[in-house]
């Protein structure tokens, strides 16, 4: 294999935060620790909070109805597969309504730390998401964009803590 594809792969890994490239020294793998997980979920909360703010400002007036419909379905299922699909629909509805290519780019550039169905693998995550999305819809109904934005951040922070606990229980972090 030539150096160019390897270099491009390393640059992509650096963009995602997995590797640090130091000029004239090489590439070094970044450790995955609890702080890195928390930072990732804090950033998700900020991006989705920004997206909901933009979505409300740029919406054609159907956003709340769409989100309410999805949220109602989320309250009626405990099936991780169905819940995963509904959660993706909820977040995608907000991102699409934001009409911001930048938000899409930011989210695409963030790699997920949990592969597969998040709700199958992270205990307690369905309830956190259910409560969060319900609170977001409730805040939007009241016209309280700040509350909706803050709720997104809190929900993602709580999901990050669940991921940290799950990873710690599986021994994925180095001992302190």
Describe the model.
The protein has 176 residues and is mainly alpha-helical. It has 2 domains: 1-30, no CATH class; 32-169, Four Helix Bundle (Hemerythrin (Met), subunit A). It has helices at residues 3-15, 34-58, 63-75, 80-98, 101-109, 118-121, 125-141, 145-169; strands at 19-22, 26-29. It has a two-stranded antiparallel ribbon. Strand 1 and strand 2 (26-29) form a beta hairpin. Helix 2 packs across helix 4 (80-98) and helix 3 runs antiparallel to helix 7 (125-141). The model has no long low-confidence stretch (mean pLDDT 91).
Question: How do the strands and helices of this protein lay out in sequence?
Answer:
Elements: H1 3-15, E1 19-22, E2 26-29, H2 34-58, H3 63-75, H4 80-98, H5 101-109, H6 118-121, H7 125-141, H8 145-169
Antiparallel strand pairs: 1-2
Helix pairs in contact: 2-4, 2-8, 3-4, 3-7, 7-8
Radius of gyration: 18 Å
Q: What name does CATH use for the topology of the largest domain? A: Four Helix Bundle (Hemerythrin (Met), subunit A)
Average pLDDT across residues?
91
Q: Under the CATH scheme, which architecture of the largest domain would be assigned?
A: Up-down Bundle
Number of domains: 2
Please write the CATH class name of the largest domain. Answer: Mainly Alpha
Distance between the amino and carboxyl termini = 38 Å
**Structural category:** mainly alpha
Which percent band covers the strand fraction?
under 5%
CATH superfamily of the largest domain: GntR ligand-binding domain-like
Strand order of the largest sheet: 1-2
Assign a percent range to the helix content: over 70%
